[in-house]
Amino acid sequence: MPVHLFITQTLEYQQCDTGSPVNDAFKHAVTRMTVFCKGNNVITVSESTLDDPFTVLLCSHTTADMTAMTPGGLVVLYPQWTLNCLAIMNQGALNRSQSHTLGIMRRSRFRLERTTNFLSASCEGICPTLWQKVGGHGRQGLVLDWDERFSIRRIVETSHIEWRLSQYCENTHCPFYTGNNKLSVRLPPKPMPGDLLGIRIQEGLIEHNRPVCDSMDESGPRLTL
What we know:
single chain, 225 residues, alpha+beta
């Protein structure tokens, strides 16, 4: 049964708007939106430009809105924050739209933060600058199935959509915060073998005021690793 017939005939909703204007944040992911009403309840059906429904979900304005449920399952991409009524703004979406009337942004019971700079520790695997993949459940995503006929896990695991919340991290405790050293995020965690010679020479200059090396020839200093 088509979705619109299920809503109107089975759920007994009335179609109250057709072709509603698509919010700027969703214009690249949604072709058309149709609204159905029943009393104070509203169902909005969005037609995605792609077969992957997460293209729409990840245009949401906040992390708390990145939640989806089917008759047989639930996926929450940021469960720890969402369950604590905390939401981080999706800077990618807000760059295209300044609307504050979508999702939880209009609900006062949620604490809304623009960035993760409120944290007193490193962002770790959920840093806004890191790319997350739906198929890998992100780095902390929650996926639950209770009816295999309408499994959402299968949809999640076949998705190739990737996203990140922001291009820059503003949490000063995070190693990806570029305010301390704009080049630090590109440094390897340990000295690479090609850097060992330079390290030895520099240590010699500092400690003995002369280079420290194993041998010297016309091509310069040599170091035996």
